[in-house]
């Protein structure tokens, strides 16, 4: 009898010890999935793909939200505290969340920066000789593949038992990303070199430009947390007139007024540049649209760009 009770006790410990949330039993949904909190929508999408059936992903930032300016609410902090893992971009993309993420990391929480999985020599700096890295790593698919590998390592640390499944999900997804890369290359090839000039609201597309042969100019810098100066505007307007650029682009996560002001400044010089459409820069599209996923977002962008500049 005594042995039987001890046996039951051990089984109880094993069951509790195996529960994904460990000691933290205040599960959100009452099931046994790992709770993963992500910052941007691109990362939420990646976490869902790699985590698959074992994971409940909670994205803090919705579509159209600007991560440079996003501040974590009390509710966000509570979600992160209760989570099993936090995934974020890093390189100061989440410029206002640095302290919160650091504190959670210090408290022993599994906090993973996707940018830590990317070889440093592949990162672009803000300007020559600067040590401020451009955080918009998702726009070079080769880099996003490295980020996917790093996220997979995170899942395997969290849940070693299902490592094979996470590896299988990764393998499938890397193939999908290769196909996406091919699609973007094909579409970009429809534009002659001199037409591959991408002018947008802020400098989110430098990785994209480097990977797919576009010259990229943003009205604001690599963070939206800065003002576009009138000299920037004048310079860019002159450039558009001189090079007879057909279209410039607004972004879903940045107010449209700066690009509209640029269009106006070009018009004042007697040249007409159209607004070529809306690009997804720092977030994916709305749920229920094709751009809901990372892959859909990048496809949508290249289609908008090529169709407008052709
Ligand atoms: Zn940005």
UniProtKB/TrEMBL annotation:
- PANTHER family for this protein: HIGH-AFFINITY ZINC UPTAKE SYSTEM PROTEIN ZNUA-RELATED, METAL-BINDING PROTEIN HI_0362-RELATED
One annotated GO molecular function is: metal ion binding
- Pfam families assigned to the protein according to its UniProt record, in alphabetical order: ZnuA
Kindly indicate whether the keyword Oxidoreductase belongs to this entry.
no
| Family the entry assigns | Belongs to the bacterial solute-binding protein 9 family.
Cross-referenced InterPro entries: AdhesinB, Bact_metal-bind_prot9, Lipoprotein_PsaA-like, ZnuA-like
- Does Transport show up as a keyword for this record? yes
Q: What is its main location?
A: other
What taxonomic ancestry is recorded? Bacteria, Bacillati, Bacillota, Clostridia, Eubacteriales
Q: Where in the cell is it found?
A: Cell envelope
A GO biological process this protein is involved in? Answer: metal ion transport
Cellular-component GO terms for this entry: cell envelope
Q: What is this protein called?
A: Manganese/zinc/iron transport system substrate-binding protein
Keyword annotations from UniProtKB, A to Z: Metal-binding, Signal, Transport
């Amino acid at each position: 009898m005594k042995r039987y009770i001890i046996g039951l006790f051990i089984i109880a410990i094993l069951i509790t010890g195996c529960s994904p949330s460990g000691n933290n039993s205040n599960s959100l949904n009452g099931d046994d999935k790992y709770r993963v909190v992500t910052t941007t929508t691109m990362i939420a999408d990646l976490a869902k793909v790699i985590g698959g059936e074992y994971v409940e992903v909670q994205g803090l930032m919705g579509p159209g939200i600007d991560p440079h300016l996003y501040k974590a609410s009390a509710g966000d902090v509570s979600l992160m505290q209760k989570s099993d893992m936090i995934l974020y971009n890093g390189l100061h993309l989440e410029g206002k969340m640095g302290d919160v993420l650091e504190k959670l990391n210090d408290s022993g929480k599994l906090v993973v920066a996707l940018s830590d999985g990317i070889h440093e020599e592949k990162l672009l700096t803000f300007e020559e000789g600067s040590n401020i890295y451009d955080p918009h790593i998702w726009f070079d698919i080769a880099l996003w593949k490295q980020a996917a590998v790093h996220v997979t390592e995170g899942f395997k640390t969290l849940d070693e038992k299902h490592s094979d499944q996470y590896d299988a999900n990764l393998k499938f997804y890397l193939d999908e990303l290769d196909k996406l890369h091919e699609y973007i290359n094909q579409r970009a090839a429809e534009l002659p070199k001199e037409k591959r000039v991408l002018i947008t609201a802020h400098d989110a597309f430098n990785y994209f430009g480097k990977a797919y042969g576009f010259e990229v100019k943003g009205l604001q810098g690599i963070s939206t947390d800065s003002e576009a100066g009138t000299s920037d505007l004048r310079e860019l307007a002159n450039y558009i007139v001189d090079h007879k650029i057909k279209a410039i682009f607004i972004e879903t996560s940045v107010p449209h007024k700066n690009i509209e002001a640029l269009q106006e400044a070009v018009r004042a010089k007697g040249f007409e540049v159209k607004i070529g459409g809306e690009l997804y820069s720092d977030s994916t599209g709305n749920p229920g649209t094709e751009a809901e996923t990372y892959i859909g977002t990048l496809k949508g962008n290249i289609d908008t760009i090529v169709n407008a500049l052709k």
